[in-house]
User: What shape does this take?
Amino acid sequence: MSKLITKNNQFNPSSQNLKEQIQNRLIEIISQVLDVKNNQIDIHQSLSSFHFDSMELIILTSELENYLGHELSLIFINDYPNIEILAKCLSEEVESLI
Assistant: This one.
């Protein structure tokens, strides 16, 4: 798997679990991009099953970059099977930067 994050700004996690924060934000972004309710997003569902078009991927990546304060690779959807694993990997990379 490729490295997702290029250091840009410091991300300041709160007392809440970082993986959980990122996972919740991913759910929010995906639900907004796809115009569905948060509870319709399954964190174990394959990311490829969402059938994001190129514009949706750009929006998703941009929103996540803004949230994390770090630049992301656009290929992350192909590298990680679902939201839960993506959030775990992102949280580990963010923690290694702070």
